[in-house]
Amino acid sequence: MKQIRRHLTYANVMSSIAVFLMLGGATAFAATKVGSNEIKANSIKTGKIVKEAVVSGKIKNGAIIESKIADGAVTTNKIADGAVTTGKIADNAVTTNKIADNAVTTGKIANDAVTAPKIVNNAVTSGKVANDAITSGKIANGAVTNEKLATAFLPAETVGVPVAGADVAADGTLRRFFNRFGGAPTVQKNGTGSYTLKFPGLEGKAFFSESIAMATLQSGPGEIRRTSSGGNPTVETYNSAGTNADQAFDYVLFVPSP
């Protein structure tokens, strides 16, 4: 002991105390969590971050703030799989060139999400239209031209094809009809054996001297004559003696007036 005391000086005592304080301080520092005040701004760089080295339980809440991380320090391989959640992505942050080709599948598109302005012109081809998908309400009036019709469907203006016709009873009742230019015709009984027909869409286009038509008695003896009134077909019927008589007849218009 005397020998030890002989070698004790103020200097070596103080240096020993300093060593113990340093060791004790380091232990105490390591035992506590690191706060933001202990980290120098821009001091955390890529080379100082080891994958899986930073454990959440060893980091004080709020210790690593944005100003402590150098620009470009956090690289792709430093981010754990599944670490970036929806809440961590800013609105409008994912731009078009950040989405891989074919990445957006059908299941990721909401119902009714794709509106007409989002479809490029001529993008929907026939192979993309379901069978029976296009109904009559989706076709504009006059959109189907003659060239788009099969040969089984002759256009109204085809020469030699009847464009209108009517089956008229003796009393002027319209029993049957067809009209490729409109709806049902009206029959006006002018008197005994005299009938004027008006076909919608063909009014004024059936002058007897300029159109091609045919009128035929349906039964019994008699005579029939076709004429016109104001461009509408007029039919006159007679008995076998040539006297005006009410008779049932058929009228067919093949080619209307020019």
Describe, in plain words, how this protein is organized in 3D.
The protein is 11% helix and 19% strand. It has helices at residues 2-7, 10-31, and strands at 164-168, 174-179, 186-191, 194-198, 212-217, 223-229, 232-238, 249-255. Strands 2-1-8-5 form a four-stranded antiparallel sheet, with no helix packed on it. The protein has a four-stranded antiparallel sheet with strand order 3-4-7-6, with no helix packed on it. A hairpin with a 2-residue loop joins strand 3 (186-191) and strand 4 (194-198). The termini are far apart. 11% of the residues are buried. Residues 25-31 have low confidence and may be disordered.
What's the layout of helices and strands?
Layout: H1 2-7, H2 10-31, E1 164-168, E2 174-179, E3 186-191, E4 194-198, E5 212-217, E6 223-229, E7 232-238, E8 249-255
Radius of gyration: 50 Å
Largest sheet: 4 strands, antiparallel
Strand arrangement, major sheet:
2-1-8-5
Poorly predicted segments: 25-31
Strand content: 15-25%
Q: Supply the number of helical segments.
A: 2
Distance between the termini: 142 Å
Gross morphology: rod-shaped
Structural class designation: alpha+beta
H/E series, N to C? HHEEEEEEEE
Summarize the structure.
11% of the residues lie in helices and 19% in strands.
